[in-house]
Amino acid sequence: MDNELKGTEISSGKGDAALSEVEELIRQTLAESKISAPAENKEKTQIKEEYKATTFSSPTPKPIPTQPQPLAAPIAQPVSAKPAAPANSYDATFNEYKAGDIVRGKVVKVDQTGVLVDIKYKSDGLILPGELSEHPYASVNEVVKVGEIIEVFIEKLESKEGYVILSKARADNERHWKTAMSAFHNKTLLEGKVLQALKGGLVVDCDGLRGFVPASQVSKRAEETFDSFVGKKVPLKVIEVNRRQGKIILSHRLAAGDKEKADYDKLLSELEVGQVKKGKVVSLKNFGAFVDLGGIEGLVHLSELSWKRVKHPSEVVKLGEELEVFVLGVDKVAKKIALGLRQLQPDPWASAAEHFKAGQIVKVKILRFAKFGAFVELGHGLEGLIHISELSKEPTATPEEAKHPDGTPLKIGDVVDAKILRVIPDEQRIGLSIKQVQVERERQTLKEVQTSAVEDKKVTIGDMIAEKERARAEREGLEEAVEGGSEEIPT
């Protein structure tokens, strides 16, 4: 027992020497990592080292324990990390950054010396004036404002003054290149403003992304010049991206075609039967008028131009005229649109029965001939039909053979009297007859002649009676004269 104690005392002295070396090594390690070792761990380490030294310097070796000894240093438990805030929230705490990262921050101060940005780091970020924008500017306030959330590129995590050095210009540049690459691969359209016209093409700006449109890729009319594009916004399509050379080539011609197609499909999908749209007459054909609805054309058929029958669209509309049309039908598969103009006008057939009744004699104007008769204008915006069998009292094979009572041929434009035979507003039909007017008038004339003849005949009988009375009187006078011996005999 005494020997063991003595051995322990000796090994204690050796353990102190070994412990001092270990402590020195720990101090150096802590100095390099700038982390202070907890006092409790130092004590436990010292106890552990002493225990180890005593064990190995003991004269009688002891068996190695199968379970950890109470004096052994406890295994360090990992420090639980603080739950991270949602990645898409500005209030998220960024625990680690590195140079080259692009992060979002809030502008907290703006002056001519630079811009301070809170990026949720241990120190604020600083944007120097030269790193604010890729393009020249007159005032810092033109680029950013206090309270604005912006994207910044981390140039350096810590400067001599303790700021994180940031660059908004580089963040914008990265974003622009990503936009260009995305538009190139996805074939999406961009909108750009023409900044400058050159002999070889146009310089454009697409929300900070600058590119060049070669002359061959500019869609223009023959009378247009490149200078006429300056200041205008045009659709663009990325056709080449070369970041190494800092080159972005765009096409206005391809984009214009794609945009027209996209606009056409969008307008077609929005059109519904029953809508009233504004348009412009762009073409007149024998069968109708084409109307541009702002990128998509529809047809107003001849029969839908007016409630009256129309021979040519020019009778109702003019080329270039702006008007409202009614959407009658939309075929989204065949991409055809049927439009109407008369639907927006009062329907004259709604009051047709108020203006015209069967048996009425009206004056009509011959508008046109058809195989089965003639169409006539009645007034109040209505038309009627005189069947070929009702055009003349005399049978005719064609409407052109019909004649007036005086024998002259019936012509388009003639104004004649016609009798209304029927009025059917629901079927938009009014039937008329010229023949019946002629027949009735002939009957009336014959009746008048007969009446006149009867009247003439009655006068003649009276005269005859009077004549008989006169003759009788004469005979009586002659007899008296003979009886009286008169020599004068009346002749």
Automatic annotation (TrEMBL):
<comment type="similarity">
    <text>Belongs to the bacterial ribosomal protein bS1 family.</text>
</comment>
<feature type="domain" description="S1 motif">
    <location>
        <begin position="274"/>
        <end position="342"/>
    </location>
</feature>
<keyword id="KW-0689">Ribosomal protein</keyword>
<dbReference type="GO" id="GO:1990904">
    <property type="term" value="C:ribonucleoprotein complex"/>
</dbReference>
<feature type="domain" description="S1 motif">
    <location>
        <begin position="359"/>
        <end position="435"/>
    </location>
</feature>
<feature type="domain" description="S1 motif">
    <location>
        <begin position="100"/>
        <end position="169"/>
    </location>
</feature>
<feature type="compositionally biased region" description="Acidic residues">
    <location>
        <begin position="479"/>
        <end position="491"/>
    </location>
</feature>
<dbReference type="InterPro" id="IPR050437">
    <property type="entry name" value="Ribos_protein_bS1-like"/>
</dbReference>
<dbReference type="InterPro" id="IPR035104">
    <property type="entry name" value="Ribosomal_protein_S1-like"/>
</dbReference>
<protein>
    <recommendedName>
        <fullName>S1 motif domain-containing protein</fullName>
    </recommendedName>
</protein>
<dbReference type="GO" id="GO:0005840">
    <property type="term" value="C:ribosome"/>
</dbReference>
<dbReference type="GO" id="GO:0003729">
    <property type="term" value="F:mRNA binding"/>
</dbReference>
<feature type="domain" description="S1 motif">
    <location>
        <begin position="187"/>
        <end position="253"/>
    </location>
</feature>
<dbReference type="GO" id="GO:0003735">
    <property type="term" value="F:structural constituent of ribosome"/>
</dbReference>
<feature type="region of interest" description="Disordered">
    <location>
        <begin position="34"/>
        <end position="71"/>
    </location>
</feature>
<feature type="region of interest" description="Disordered">
    <location>
        <begin position="470"/>
        <end position="491"/>
    </location>
</feature>
<dbReference type="GO" id="GO:0006412">
    <property type="term" value="P:translation"/>
</dbReference>
<dbReference type="GO" id="GO:0005737">
    <property type="term" value="C:cytoplasm"/>
</dbReference>
<dbReference type="Pfam" id="PF00575">
    <property type="entry name" value="S1"/>
</dbReference>
<dbReference type="InterPro" id="IPR003029">
    <property type="entry name" value="S1_domain"/>
</dbReference>
<feature type="compositionally biased region" description="Basic and acidic residues">
    <location>
        <begin position="40"/>
        <end position="52"/>
    </location>
</feature>
<dbReference type="InterPro" id="IPR012340">
    <property type="entry name" value="NA-bd_OB-fold"/>
</dbReference>
<keyword id="KW-0687">Ribonucleoprotein</keyword>
